[in-house]
Write a structure and sequence with these properties.
128 residues, alpha/beta, 2,3-Dihydroxybiphenyl 1,2-Dioxygenase, domain 1, four-stranded mixed sheet, 8 strands
Length: 128
């Protein structure tokens, strides 16, 4: 079986500059590569979110980006203070055993910030 060492999710956006500001300044992600019409941001040591400016983006409601943290409430305070639109306040989801909140990016993509409560979830090593 192939072993993968990194993961990138790409979103198609209408305005690369507006989306770059959102992910870099409002969400706080590090820009690691600027490819001209695509920019890639680090979400964790081995995972990335790419945004590419395209006229034909499709329906933003067909995708959900989930960012995992142990501090959903702290993230919520930071995101709201940065002017990020909160779609759903932090709350417990008993069905999936997670604590989460939802936000919208400039293109209408749904961004979930969540903490897995299941002890079987594989925890990431803390950043060094």
């Amino acid at each position: 079986m192939t072993s993968f060492s990194q993961q990138v999710t790409f979103l198609l956006v209408a305005d690369l500059e507006a989306s770059s500001r959102f992910y870099r300044h409002s969400i706080g992600l590090e820009l690691v590569l600027d490819q001209g019409d695509c920019r890639i941001f680090r979400t964790s040591p081995t995972a990335f979110l790419g945004i590419c400016e395209r006229a034909d983006r499709g329906d933003p409601n067909t995708l959900l980006v989930t960012l995992v943290t142990d501090d959903v409430d702290g993230s919520h305070r930071d995101l709201v203070a940065a002017g990020v639109l909160c779609e759903k306040q932090p709350q417990l989801n008993e069905k999936y055993n997670v604590y989460h909140a939802f936000y919208r990016d400039p293109d209408g993509y749904l961004i979930e910030v969540q903490r897995f409560l299941d002890p079987d979830w594989p925890r990431a090593d803390p950043p060094r």
